[in-house]
Amino acid sequence: MPNSEPASLLELFNSIATQGELVRSLKAGNASKDEIDSAVKMLVSLKMSYKAAAGEDYKADCPPGNPAPTSNHGPDATEAEEDFVDPWTVQTSSAKGIDYDKLIVRFGSSKIDKELINRIERATGQRPHHFLRRGIFFSHRDMNQVLDAYENKKPFYLYTGRGPSSEAMHVGHLIPFIFTKWLQDVFNVPLVIQMTDDEKYLWKDLTLDQAY
Q1: CATH number of the domain located at residue range(s) 109-203 in this protein
Q2: Which alpha helices (DSSP H) does 110-163 contain, by range?
Q3: Where is this region: Disordered (predicted)?
Q4: Which one of 25, 59, 93, 139 is CB 3.0 to 4.6 Å from 109, fit for a cystine?
């Protein structure tokens, strides 16, 4: 019998490719940040839907039912063989590792530069955290708006979340929490932490009781 995939899965695969092209064209055409952000959010949503339906991450060079190619060393290697980072996967074909400057452009964020670090120090009166000074946290979105609010004494709060995956926390939880605690202290603002057990139930092979 022929090996066939549901039409909806192939349609979803094609929709991701189309949306990816849209994102690239918007960025190349210097579209507004809101327009780019909206397109990127749609792309992320489509990829999450694909992962839920296919049981594996979307790969641009691997349509449903086709094995992924092992390598391509030619000069026309596609973007699919470049750096790939999402909430579940970090991979690169380069011996030099991930090119984070390219990822900053791809995700539509901004580099944390010396000017921003100096502004944080001036606004808070505190020496910036060594995670900032050493480039461990290297990218941001709208941090200047946060600093505008802080300097104008407008209230804001911190929000983060964690997806429980074991009986204990691990270093992947600890590093963002260390930095979040520093932000909470220097800006003297409330902090909200959501435990995303509902997300774990949706995207992991867990029962409701296990996720709870």
Answers
A1: 3.40.50.620
A2: 114-124, 130-133, 143-151
A3: 59-79
A4: 139
